[in-house]
DNA sequence: ATGAAAGCGCTAACAG
DNA sequence: CTGTTAGCGCTTTCAT
């Protein structure tokens, strides 16, 4: 007969096996309560026996939902990826939270220029219900374009310029200010900073925190810029010392750069913290293992991820969300300061 | 009239605007060459003006393809995630390669037991064309289940037990053997190892390499196990020294554990490499920054990713692939040995 | 409580 | 080279 057993079972297959209609099977699959218990039961049995799994494409076509959320990591994010625990941490946080909501995480790596367009197409195609953007660089036009596309979006880190989309960020400046107060309280008077890239909000705000903190001292700022990675911290520290050999305190805008600074200081014969006290930012795992262990400003990386997920899920449901959520940071004091 | 301007434009909208049929528009969208140039041109214009983007769900429904590939990171993988550069590196490699092929990367984090089922459903639903599995633990039944589900799959790391799916791996044992030869060549005679978890192939094979290398020496093995993370390396080194204070060489199965060993050795007054030579495995970024810089066995993490992508793309196209690809490792000599 | 029927947006024969 | 016609597998009124 026409009993093609080939292919994966569809609603129709199940319906026939259970002696019901497609509609009723669909109701059972989607947990409708308006199905007679015994009928539902036999349908469930048929589903199990046939190993039926709904076809998400067919479902999306009619529901206009995909139950998946994109996490976009643009440009530099992927560069930093390899030696930084920030993005992995965010990914975990977002992933776990989405999993609880039974949503899928779709990772879009925006490494090249061309991928920018691909992403836009992808999002436009409504392959995802919403977007979490790890926006980093000021020049990034993606947040705007996504908003214009009418896709729910929330970004990690306040966008540079005016924030037109909701975001999750941490209290960069006040965390740094706490670090500065700590240094000053330690009696440090010649405090330099290794700043992050100034086209990223994190870089700017941490520098602002340093400058604010310095005001209390009435001292001149001493700034060298790095790229958040270790090597740049080593180099910046060397330039700093060349500019002023009497530096007795350093705030580095990332733990990796702080670790780099520690190395340069040691190499140039400075003892930490006796000669120079050092404080970092991030509180990544590696900070506990520097020599000496790094005093640092802790930021709740995992929570950033869960909050991002929470917000985007709300937005996708059409609910309102706060324009911004700013999570606290706190100073973790270890032996380097 | 019935000119509802609402909603996103569909093929039909474009067809009407360009005075053609849906089929022809579809041809243009999909780059068919059998369309008269001027017609194609006007269709393209209409597409641009209307901002038409194909609906992937509708397309998948008929083509049975989704043009996306899942990368599954099971259990421990996500745990290690935070302080290890391996998975981020693989993700980047896979992501970049897929991007070139215009495929999407869907990241599935299998953190909990329940997610195992979710993943199976997801894959069964054919939301992805193929799966790249970062299989790690011996007990993992996922490779089998996926194969049984008839989904193209390739794993990162040879599965424990018999390999039923194609995999990409590196030459663990021979890399370690090179490390052992180096140690022996340095005159080391009391060589211990900090092994990785023995329910992972990487852990086992690196231990096998150590044992092989030791044979040349005719010496008794000295083994403590860690979990690839830094803290476990610190602890294992301490146990090792307690068992034999005369150890003069150490092979650690990961750079992170090697770094841990370095710290314990320093704390206990051993000079590296004068008293004890240390070699790690992985060649992560951090290995260049340990004190002293770590001699280590390099594995091409990024290439593992690109190879994985390459293989799964082949499989999805229905082509044959080698049952296994094993990439070379090489010893990178730095000051710790 | 259940079924019939329509249709989501697209591709793929098949004619012409 | 182009249009017509059939669905892909599912949800969802609307009847019954």
From TrEMBL, chains A, B:
Gene3D superfamilies: 3.40.50.2300, lambda repressor-like DNA-binding domains. PROSITE patterns: HTH_LACI_2. GO terms for molecular function: DNA-binding transcription factor activity; transcription cis-regulatory region binding. It comes from the Bacteria. InterPro entries: HTH_LacI (IPR000843), LacI/GalR-like_sensor (IPR046335), Lambda_DNA-bd_dom_sf (IPR010982), Peripla_BP_I (IPR028082). CDD domains: HTH_LacI, PBP1_LacI_sugar_binding-like. Keywords: DNA-binding, Transcription, Transcription regulation. This is LacI family transcriptional regulator. Pfam families: LacI, Peripla_BP_3. The lineage of its organism: Bacteria, Bacillati, Actinomycetota, Actinomycetes, Propionibacteriales. The keyword Transcription applies. Signal peptide: none annotated. Residues 9-63 form the HTH lacI-type domain.
